[in-house]
Design brief:
Length: about 300
């Protein structure tokens, strides 16, 4: 139904000096994201001491973060140094799907990690049977399937919209709100329906996580190793807040663009994936000890 074959992406800024600076910043951030998340995934998969379900799930969270950032960052960096910032219609739809696929999978995986946290604290004697390695593997597959379903629903809506030009996206990526503003049809009915797919997912998931934390924190009042459990909870809560606060701002509202949207989206898609490995390693004594031993084995003292 669309009469245009490509979109023009305005990007973060039109200032050449700022574009060069932003390219350098995003390049460093992206390299740290890939190396940090890859390090966590490889370490967990090769060190037998990190064989518990929480680390198994963390390795997949790290992989999702790497793919999530890779669906946005390379195109963003290319546009910062390119004179003609365009993206094809199919490329734009692919980016929308990839973004929501990995974001949806991460949301479900965060729920699974909360369930594992609940089992470890509230049901310690039954933890290994309630959430065993096969169960974790199945839940990871479910997270991927639900993420695929979420991204697929977005695409089913978007590809049916008529885009009749000029096709200028006032953003650095293809996403729901910038694209809905370009559709040449009345969006008063369809717009809220499309946004409800992402907005309701954020709201429902965040409500479930808050309820889970209430139960976990109540059980910690009588927990023997309260400090260690609180440290684990703090890491997970921090990651959840960093992910859901920007997500809620972008999708739990009417489909209208605001000037701050670009900064919030950068934080959600670029900054959060680089913070997650830092949060989980710096606040996890077991993970830090394993990484120290690995470093010393690779760089033995003379």
């Amino acid at each position: 139904m669309s009469s245009i074959t490509e979109f023009i992406v305005l990007g973060l800024t039109q200032n050449p000096g700022m574009q060069t600076l932003l390219f350098a910043v995003h390049l460093v951030t992206y390299l740290i994201t890939l190396s940090g998340n890859l390090l966590i995934s490889v370490t967990i998969s090769t060190i037998s001491a990190l064989g518990s379900p929480v680390y198994f799930l963390l390795s997949y969270l790290s992989m999702i973060d790497g793919f999530y950032s890779s669906s946005i960052a390379p195109k963003l960096m290319f546009d910062l140094v390119s004179r003609k910032n365009t993206i094809s219609f199919s490329g734009c739809m692919t980016q929308v799907f990839a973004e929501h696929f990995f974001a949806g999978a991460e949301i479900v995986l965060l729920i699974v990690m909360t369930y594992d946290l609940y089992a470890a604290i509230c049901k310690p004697l039954h933890c290994m049977t309630v959430i065993s390695r096969p169960v974790c593997a199945l839940l990871v597959v479910v997270a991927g399937a639900l993420g695929f379903l979420h991204g697929g629903i977005q695409i089913l809506f978007m590809v049916q919209l008529p885009f009749c030009g000029p096709g200028v996206i006032d953003h650095f990526m293809c996403d729901l709100t910038p694209l809905l503003e370009l559709a040449c049809m009345d969006m008063h009915t369809l717009g809220p329906l499309i946004s409800a797919n992402s907005g309701s997912l954020c709201l429902l998931t965040f409500s479930m996580l808050v309820a889970s934390y209430v139960v976990i924190l109540r059980s910690l009042r009588t927990h023997s190793s309260r400090h260690k459990a609180l440290s684990t909870c703090a890491s997970h809560v921090t990651v959840v807040i960093l992910f859901f606060v920007p997500c809620s701002f972008l999708y739990l509202r009417p489909m209208t663009s605001f000037p701050i949207d670009k900064a919030v989206t950068v934080f959600c898609t670029i900054v959060t994936p680089v913070l997650n490995p830092l949060i989980y390693t710096l606040r996890n004594a077991e993970m830090k000890n394993v990484l120290k031993k690995l470093w010393h084995s690779l760089h033995p003292a003379p």
